[in-house]
Amino acid sequence: MKIFGAGKIKEADETTISRQGITSGELMERAGTEVFLWLKRKFPDKETVFHIFCGRGNNGGDGLVVARLLHRDNYKAVVDIVEDTGNPSADFTSNLEKLKECSLHCNTNEVYAYKKHKIVYIDAIFGIGLNREVGQEVRDVIEKINNSKAKVISIDVPSGMFMDRKTVSAVRSDIVLTFQFPKLAFYLAGNCHFINEIKILDIGLDKEFIDAEATHYHLTDKTEAHRRYRPVPHHAHKGTQGHALIIGGSYGKVGAALLSAKAALISGCGLVTAYIPKCGYNILQTAFPEAMALTDGEEHITSISFDLQPKAIGLGPGIGQHPETQQAVLEFLKRQQLPMVIDADALNILSYNKEWFKFLPENTILTPHPKELERLVGFWQDDLEKVEKIRAFAKEHSIILVAKDAFTIIAFDDVVYINPTGNSGLATGGSGDVLTGIITGLLAQSYPPADAAVFGVYLHGLSADIGVCDVSRQAFTASDIISYLGKAYLKIEAEKAQK
């Protein structure tokens, strides 16, 4: 799904109005109706009280449409027009008159008695066009909303959130009902505490315009994930499903290589070999009998040499940074042209020796966590600069960069994909090693590198989304990701079958 900036969204609105022969007010009515219908499905109990906070711009106009429709459907609605929110827009003014016509007045200080958990705050103060810091009066309202015990739902964006720069203060929304497109700001690490859940409402913007417009940014929605997924052919056998080689492990960190190797096999490839130091041999063969093993060095890898012919390689989980290991990595990279995933200490070794990037095959996949990413691309001032650094770095080195975070970013060919699956259950040791294994396993199955990265991250997160429902976020471990991969695949296949 494409992610557009504020300017392009405004252009989409204008194009829709022109091509569909409607007014801006009619488009606002359409947007407000979609919000109303969603609220009606979510809160069927007419005892629910909706307290709608409206600015004077078009986001506030959306809120007024919602208030009117709720009132007409016999819901209890209270409307506050927030001061210091700019001059009234024409469509806001028009909808304010319509509100008065149906005998629903604003800023009346009317208080409804409501049952516990039956109050919903609707935030319609500012939309995507906010370009200035809000004043004290607005900050007071935002603080009131954030300190309330009400369910908080924002229309289009949490008020106070900027689309193109760092946000300091904004409404903390339980749910954001955003129109037509996801917004990049929603998925930036610094904004995560402002949004708990995102729902994208289709308001019928011009499809031809959306399809024709290019963008650097995309969300990996179900459609995108399904498009990249490759089912196992009925005639497959282990020789046709690919052979993955995982190179990693050192004394005390053999588990990382074990997790990665196991994830590669469970992702669907036919064979897995783990290249590990000798101290890990008994551990691997006992804990994971399905894997084959090659060994080098006693407690860490000192050279990388093998006779087998894998389809893909995962390099780095638990490998350590011993001088001999670093030299082994260099010599290996100089002669390596297979599809490859580089993670963990192999990434750190690269960050200390950036001249080695010239040895990486095109579309090599790098999977850094935030500190590893900083060592690679340098310090960033804010999340937007971080995204641009990721995109530029991937383009400069002709690699695929998988920047792991609450919302993982995948960059390649001057485009960025934001992954929406996953949860805080993944904040546990070994989850990155599992991701390396999954992507390596997909590469071994002949997934193109970009597909392996985008789909692999989606699958990794989906497994966690399914698993925490059984295990809990607190008790969830990296091994659980592997355990729930099968259910993640089944879910994807079921969704595809329903289309």
Written description of the protein model:
With 499 residues, the chain is an alpha/beta fold. It folds into two domains: 213 residues, Rossmann fold; 274 residues, 3-Layer(aba) Sandwich (UDP-N-acetylmuramoyl-L-alanine:D-glutamate ligase). An eleven-stranded mixed beta sheet has the order 1-8-17-16-15-14-13-12-9-10-11, sandwiched between helices. A six-stranded parallel beta sheet has the order 3-2-4-5-6-7. Strand 13, helix 11 and strand 14 form a beta-alpha-beta unit. Helix 2 packs across helix 3 and helix 8 crosses helix 14. The longest helix has 23 residues. It starts with a strand and ends with a helix. The mean pLDDT is 96.
Strand arrangement, largest sheet?
1-8-17-16-15-14-13-12-9-10-11
Radius of gyration: 26 Å
Number of domains: 2
Largest β-sheet summary: 11 strands, mixed
Instruction: Indicate the mean pLDDT.
Output: 96
CATH architecture of the largest domain: 3-Layer(aba) Sandwich
CATH class of the largest domain: Alpha Beta
Query: Which structural category fits the helices and strands?
Result: alpha/beta
How does the overall form come out from the CA principal axes? elongated
- Beta-strand percentage range: 5-15%
